[in-house]
């Protein structure tokens, strides 16, 4: 998809004839549709004889069909978006967080203490109440997203004329916000390239509220934010509760594809506690 976009700097030959990159894109899009329809059809078949109870609530797809009354085409688009926008982004965000905790054992130990205070036994699970009390975890997660945001940035078409740095920018202009440059700017963050979760807990050290918005803001912010935060919290809390995480190789950087990904393998060691 990136290679097909005009901003990639490549000539868009695919608009005039089928190119290898275009054919790959079509194939992978078809794969997404095939997987999406597979789960939609399964949900449709099960729904015919399904009776919802407290122990057996409707799945998300079934709820869309019953409560939202969406047709199959609409649901297919939503499920395909889940697959395309929710898997790689969530996985790499969790990976970067584990990497930073492995590289900063003192931060990992503080997080482990918070987790064991809230979950004193290994079989105890995160509840809504406990989730809201994971203050240091949330600080670690936000700091990881600051250093390694999910995507390279965001773009918006201006709805009205605005003045930016003394320049009048007319409505209709496409304005972009590069996340990495903004999130690591010395104007907003002291020691900007250092993993310091504590900066999000100290009210006096808190930066401008819009200096770090990895999920965007407002009506067009990331629709999957809450789901991603919940998934990563449950995964990483469970891992840190049961394992000490270590990393003993060269530093890992970041490269931007459709999402930001590690530029080296995440060769993490998990040592059972």
Automatic annotation (TrEMBL):
Record: residues binding heme: 222
Top-rank taxon: Eukaryota
A GO term, aspect molecular function: heme binding
Keywords associated with the record: Heme, Iron, Metal-binding, Monooxygenase, Oxidoreductase
Cofactor(s) the protein needs: heme
Keyword Metal-binding assigned: yes
Keyword hit for DNA repair: no
InterPro entries: CYP11_CYP27_families, Cyt_P450, Cyt_P450_CS, Cyt_P450_E_grp-I, Cyt_P450_sf
Family matches, as Gene3D superfamilies: Cytochrome P450 (1.10.630.10)
Family named by the database record: Belongs to the cytochrome P450 family.
Entry protein name: Cytochrome P450 CYP12A2
Lineage of the organism: Eukaryota, Metazoa, Ecdysozoa, Arthropoda, Chelicerata
């Amino acid at each position: 998809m990136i290679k097909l976009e005009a901003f990639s700097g490549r000539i868009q030959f695919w608009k005039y004839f089928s190119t290898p990159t275009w054919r790959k894109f079509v194939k992978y899009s078809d794969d997404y549709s095939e997987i999406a329809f597979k789960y939609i059809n399964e949900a449709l078949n099960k729904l015919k004889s399904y009776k919802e109870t407290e122990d057996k609530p409707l799945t998300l797809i079934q709820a869309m069909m019953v409560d939202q009354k969406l047709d199959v085409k609409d649901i297919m688009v939503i499920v395909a978006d889940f697959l395309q926008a929710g898997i790689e982004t969530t996985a790499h965000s969790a990976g970067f967080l584990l990497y930073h905790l492995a590289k900063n054992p003192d931060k990992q130990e503080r997080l482990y203490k918070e987790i064991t205070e809230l979950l004193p036994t290994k079989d105890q699970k995160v509840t809504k109440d406990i989730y809201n009390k994971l203050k240091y975890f949330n600080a670690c997660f936000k700091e990881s997203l600051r250093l390694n945001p999910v995507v390279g940035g965001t773009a918006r078409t201006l709805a009205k004329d605005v003045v930016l740095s003394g320049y009048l920018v007319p409505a209709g202009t496409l304005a972009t916000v590069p996340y990495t440059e903004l999130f690591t700017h010395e104007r907003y963050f002291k020691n900007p390239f250092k993993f310091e979760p504590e900066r999000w807990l100290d009210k006096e050290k808190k930066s401008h509220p819009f200096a770090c918005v990895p999920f965007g803001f407002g009506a067009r912010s990331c629709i999957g934010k809450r789901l991603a935060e919940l998934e990563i919290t449950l995964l990483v809390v469970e891992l840190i509760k049961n394992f000490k995480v270590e990393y003993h190789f060269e530093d890992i950087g970041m490269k931007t594809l459709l999402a930001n990904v590690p530029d080296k393998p995440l060769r993490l060691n998990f040592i059972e506690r």
